[in-house]
Amino acid sequence: MIQIPLAAIANQSLSIRLDNRRYQITLQAAAGIMAATIIRDGIALVQGVRCHPRAPLLPGYKKGDTGNFIFETESGEYPDYTKFDSTHALLYVSKEELEANRE
Q1: Is the model's pLDDT at 71 over the cut of 70?
Q2: Helix (H) or strand (E) run with residue 42 in it
Q3: Strands, DSSP E only, in the chain?
């Protein structure tokens, strides 16, 4: 797993290369929740999807042959941008790691 660097600010965007693919990730605070938009190699995969703890952000049919993103939080809390630099983290889980967890 790779931890994606996030700042403790409400709305942010970043670009990162993972598994030889370029991702653009936008996180926004909206009515007490976090919403994510993920673009891979210029193609929007999800827009404004609600962020849940330990739940994949990309649906299976959208992740293709790559990994997925999950939020790891303490005590199963919903992701909170004020805790991004401490106890809440966005992780990228590779395809291999996802397959190993299924076994």
Answers
A1: yes
A2: none
A3: 2-4, 12-18, 21-30, 33-40, 43-50, 68-72, 89-93
Q: Does an H or E element contain 39, and which?
A: strand 33-40
Q: Which two tokens stand for residue 64?
A: 């293709």
Share of the chain above pLDDT 70, in %: 93
Q: In sequence order, what are the residues at sequence separation of 6 or more whose Cβ sits closer than 8 angstroms to the Cβ of residue 101? A: none
Q: How many helices (H) and strands (E) does the chain have?
A: 2, 7
Q: Which residues contact 80 (CB under 8 A, 6 or more apart)?
A: 34, 73, 88
Q: Could you tell me the pTM of the whole model?
A: 0.88
Task: State the Cα–Cα distance between residues 68 and 99, nearest whole angstrom.
Answer: 11
Residue 102: pLDDT over 80: no
